[in-house]
What we know:
The chain is α+β, with helices and mostly antiparallel strands. Helix content is 40%, strand content 18%. The strands form two sheets. Strands 1, 5, 6, 7, 8, 9, 10 and 11 form an eight-stranded mixed sheet that branches.
Amino acid sequence: xxxxxxxxxxxxxxxxxxxxxxxxxxxxxxxxxxxxxxxxxxxxxxxxxxxxxxxxxxxxxxxxxxxxxxxxxxxxxxxxxxxxxxxxxxxxxxxxxxxxxxxxxxxxxxxxxxxxxxxxxxxxxxxxxxxxxxxxxxxxxxxxxxxxxxxxxxxxxxxxxxxxxxxxxxxxxxxxxxxxxxxxxxxxxxxxxxxxxxxxxxxxxxxxxxxxxxxxxxxxxxxxxxxxxxxxxxxxxxxxxxxxxxxxxxxxxxxxxxxxxxxxxxxxxxxxxxxxxxxxxxxxxxxxxxxxxxxxxxxxxxxxxxxxxxxxxxxxxxxxxxxxxxxxxxxxxxxxxxxxxxxxxxxxxxxxxxxxxxxxxxxxxxxxxxxxxxxxxxxxxxxxxxxxxxxxx
Length: 393
């Protein structure tokens, strides 16, 4: 287009030689018939303008000037009412053909231009996949995975092996076998995710702890037993320090000679190795758990002096896990003679100890899939924790 279209009626270029004044005149006489006879010339003019258009915007202006509500062809069709029937039919057919051909030409040109623009953009934005990756695209190990690897390295050095079990458990494995009575708050629906019963009518739940794996192991393994059980657990709770899905690690030792002193030695060594503090204060407080007797909660020393939290020697204590000697009824439920065997068990939240060790203030970002958070708190993939190589690097 050589001129700018003005409201689809007139412009400076050759496409607008037929203006509203001409329409008014031909409506008053027979000049419209002459214009209809020149439809082929008008078509060639418009098609030529379409071919010369260089942008999609130019094509849109051409469409409005020719086919819009006040476009050239539209104004010509408005004058058909002044013709006699035979002339109206012939002129109408010619204008409709012209309208269709011009519209088709414009649409085809738009499609072609769009394809060409897309092709140019693709060529400009193409990526050479043979190039080495950018440093910021490096993957990171999630703190949960790293913490589980650290736990495994420490306990396996003590002679433990790793055991696993299903996430969906029966009421027996999750509660009954662990000496948890029917009236215990942990069985209530506000704390536990219940599922429809199986074909036999047995109630099912998403496991609330990894203790069912201890039951399954004691049922199928002849003592001595020494296992740890890291894995996902589920409880109906959600805030800055609780999540409906979280991770636990539990430990179990069963043999004929294990006593409370072994429990204390095992957990003191673990706490000092995990947090990297050789003289970390550790204390055991009497507590109650249905599946252990006696039971104890384990605290580690810390200080909050100057508004800064630090693990180690200080004037305060922080509870991190629960433990105790396996209850005789639990051994009986698993087919183990409590008069011959005894042992200890312990459990802790993996997110909790990871937050303490790595200074993570909120539990929720663990599951937000925020790549910025993972870049900050994540670990190098090849930095696998080992006792020989070091846990606290």
